[in-house]
Amino acid sequence: MISRLATCIFAVCASVSSGHAQQPSGASVPAFEVASIKPSALESRGARCTGGPGTTDLALLTCKNYSLSFLVMMAYDLRNFQLVAPSWMEGARFDVTARIPAGTSRQEFGLMMQNLLAERFGLKVHSESREMTVFDLVVGKGGPKLRVSDEPAAEKPEGPWKPAFGPPARVMAAVTRKNDSAADLAYLLSNFLGQPVTDATGLKGRYD
Fold it and tell me: Among 37, 78, 147, 171, which is least packed by CB within 10 angstroms?
């Protein structure tokens, strides 16, 4: 990897309250069929989130003990290094259940989450550009030594692999992945490093 400076987009949480945000009049706003958000039990341990476009459960989103910060990251497709928000949002944890309309795309799902957070928490955000170090994933001098995957490409959704809306790992002992592209690997490394990693390998295959 080599480091360079690049401009990245940040989302900033400007205001969070318990009020209800007013929806634009006359606008068609993507929304869940029904949604519930309630504070997690104090004794809750661990966090998990399942369901949504690209998963095995397209109809139901279920999040347990998820911080408000990660709910915002899910809604706006952000990583932890792209979110600037009050520190208390990490400690405020909630259980979320939402029924997803049939045929919802990833983009529509994100808009549904954004509108839900605006409605239930009065969430307001704005974006700004900041310079930060970015790593490029490149092929070494000896060439790639990756094993080409023998799994059918159709078994894996198109686009970069994304973990199930979980926090980035801080310690990586060993990771096993199947049928990943170089872009998938760059995304995974970005989560571990807490910094942007771009795919500059030029590799088009999928590997184990």
Answer: 171
Domain boundaries, the chain: 135-199
Q: What is the three-class DSSP state of 68?
A: helix
The torsion angle over the Cα atoms of residues 37, 51, 67 and 73, rounded to 10 degrees, is -110
CA distances from residue 207 to 34, 95, 146, 162 in whole angstroms, order as listed: 40, 36, 6, 16
Token reading at 82: 């792209």
Three-class DSSP category at 32: coil
Tell me the sheet residues that pair with 161. Answer: none
**pTM for the complete prediction?**
0.73
Q: Could you read off the pLDDT of 12-69 as tens digits, one per residue?
A: 444 444 333 344 444 578 899 999 999 999 988 888 999 999 888 999 999 999 999 9
Please write the tens of the pLDDT for every residue from 98-129. Answer: 999 999 999 999 999 999 999 999 888 888 88
CB contact at 8 A, 149 and 181: no
Instruction: Tell me the one-letter amino acid at 17.
Output: S
Our measurement of the distance from residue 173's CA atom to the centroid of its chain's CA atoms, rounded to an integer in Å, reads: 22
